[in-house]
């Protein structure tokens, strides 16, 4: 699992969204068994958490940049 986590950390936001979209599309087909569905659901949650953290980090950087520009002017 650590190897997958490392791969996830190196993904761009766009790549993570694409992977999450692929998981959601697969889950919508209803051709998965219960265990497989649960596994994919868990994997999707990992992507959602990753994306939330990355987007929150970018948002914080933007706030810092905006506040810095306000202090300069």
List the helices and strands and how they pair.
Layout lengths: L1 H8 L3 H16 L5 H39 L1
Net shape = rod-shaped
Summarize the main sheet.
none
Radius of gyration: 17 Å
Report the span from N to C terminus.
48 Å
Number of helices: 3
- How much helix is in the residues? over 70%
Give the ordered list of helices and strands: HHH
Low-confidence stretches: none
Annotation, overall tally of beta strands: 0
Strand content: under 5%
Q: Write down the overall mean pLDDT.
A: 87
Task: Look at the helices and sheets and give the structural class.
Answer: mainly alpha
The overall number of domains is: 1
- Quaternary structure: single chain
Question: Please, could you describe this protein's structure?
Answer:
This protein is an all-alpha fold. The protein has helices at 2-9, 13-28, 34-72. The chain has one domain (2-72). The longest helix is centred in the C-terminal third of the chain and has 39 residues, at 34-72. The protein is rod-shaped, with a radius of gyration of 17 Å.
Considering the chains and any ligands shown, give keywords for the structure:
73 residues; mainly alpha; 3 helices; 0% strand; rod-shaped
Brief rundown of the structure:
The chain has one domain (2-72). Helices cover 86% and strands 0% of the residues. It is built from 3 helices and no strands.
């Amino acid at each position: 699992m650590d190897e997958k986590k490392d791969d996830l950390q190196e993904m761009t936001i766009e790549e993570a969204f694409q992977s999450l979209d692929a998981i959601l599309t697969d889950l919508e087909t209803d051709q998965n068994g219960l265990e497989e569905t649960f596994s994919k659901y868990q994997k999707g949650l990992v992507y959602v958490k990753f994306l939330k953290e990355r987007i929150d980090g970018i948002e914080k950087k933007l706030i810092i940049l905006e506040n810095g520009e306000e202090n300069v002017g």
